[in-house]
Amino acid sequence: MADILKTTSTEVWSGAQAATLVVVCLLAGTAGGWLLRRSNTTPRAPQTEVASAPAPVASQPAPPNFGLKSSLPSNEQLKQAADSQAAPMLEQLKKDPNNAGLLASVGNLYYDAKEYPTAIEYYKRSLKTQPTDTSVRTDLGTAYWYTGNADSAIAEFNKALSYDPTKADTLFNLGIVKWQGKKDVPGAVVAWQKLLDANPGYPNKDGVLHLMIEAQQH
């Protein structure tokens, strides 16, 4: 957030907006892995896609550019931006290497730059200090998903849920990975149903219900 739904560098997407985008992608036949990321502790590097974690943006027909170069940043430019923004944080970490919030912030920068292995490294370091931080652990799971590691993603989501069994973003992502990564439709539906049962005010109940129907049909 079907791309795993996540926040962007310039705005925070609500669960409703993100899940609605998932449904649109699914109905268009382009489900991939929209996962939600909610550990937004610092400004993050610019990126080319909207909305976490636990994969590629749903493909859309590219508009004609009439020979003009794309204005979207390349992966290398994203990495350079992340490196630049992370530099002062890394200097702070030399003095305070176990600062969980700072480590998670660096992880967020590299996550948004799509440097997922690096993001994983910093999320894991953050969790060594604050293992019960369910937002960071969910982000770690989404980063694992983007590296193609569905099993590790599910393990991190389950661990996050052991601390907060009703965490909506984690349950949403768990359902996506079980469906898309493990072809476990019953498991996905159970996760999404638990999300709805435990969060009666969830802003996009209809979107989750659409996902449940879509998963069962495929």
Topology:
Elements (H helix, E strand, L loop, with lengths): L14 H13 L47 H21 L4 H13 L3 H14 L4 H13 L3 H14 L4 H15 L2 H14 L6 H13 L1
Helix pairs in contact: 1-9, 2-3, 3-4, 4-5, 5-6, 5-7, 6-7, 7-8, 8-9
Structure, briefly:
60% of the residues lie in helices and 0% in strands.
Q: Percentage of helical residues?
A: 55-70%
Provide the low-confidence segments as ranges: 6-33, 41-69
Please identify the top-level CATH class of the domain at 15-57 and 133-217.
Mainly Alpha
Largest sheet: none
Order of helices and strands: HHHHHHHHH
CATH superfamily of the domain at 15-57 and 133-217: Tetratricopeptide repeat domain
- The tally of helices reads 9
Distance between the termini: 20 Å
- How would the global form be characterised? globular
The CATH architecture of the domain at 15-57 and 133-217: Alpha Horseshoe
Report strand %.
Answer: under 5%
Class from secondary-structure proportions? mainly alpha
Radius of gyration based on Cα positions: 17 Å
Mean pLDDT: 77
**What fold name goes in the CATH topology slot of the domain at 15-57 and 133-217?**
Serine Threonine Protein Phosphatase 5, Tetratricopeptide repeat
- Count the E strands: 0
